[in-house]
Amino acid sequence: MLQEQQTNKLNNQKIILVMSLNIKPIGDRVVVEAAPAETKTASGIYIPETAQEKPQHGTIVAVGPGRYADSTGNLIPLTVKAGDKVLYGKFAGQEVTIEGKDYLIMRESDIYIVL
């Protein structure tokens, strides 16, 4: 079941919606909702679905607890959190469908930057 959290910034009336899933990834894995593929070029030409490139950015919707250090056994928490917009590798993650929506499950190390 999807849950929505709504935050209202009073200074510019911007509303931010953060989607979170009722699932918990294991270890250092995260669940990412990929951004929609571009359907139109900057000059206004529509791109057919077969020619659209796979997006390389999205929003994190769920994170695992972290990974355990090999030498000490201490838990190393993840540096990303739900709601972060991230840039990841072109072939990163495993595509899955949860409750009718497509997501990517990947390790935190597959994420390049937080936007």
From TrEMBL:
InterPro entries: Chaperonin_GroES, Chaperonin_GroES_sf, Chaprnonin_Cpn10_CS, GroES-like_sf. PROSITE patterns: CHAPERONINS_CPN10. Keywords: Chaperone, Cytoplasm. The keyword Cytoplasm applies. It holds the Pfam family Cpn10. Belongs to the GroES chaperonin family. Heptamer of 7 subunits arranged in a ring. Interacts with the chaperonin GroEL. Together with the chaperonin GroEL, plays an essential role in assisting protein folding. The GroEL-GroES system forms a nano-cage that allows encapsulation of the non-native substrate proteins and provides a physical environment optimized to promote and accelerate protein folding. GroES binds to the apical surface of the GroEL ring, thereby capping the opening of the GroEL channel. This is Co-chaperonin GroES. It comes from Mucilaginibacter panaciglaebae. The lineage of its organism: Bacteria, Pseudomonadati, Bacteroidota, Sphingobacteriia, Sphingobacteriales. The gene is groES.
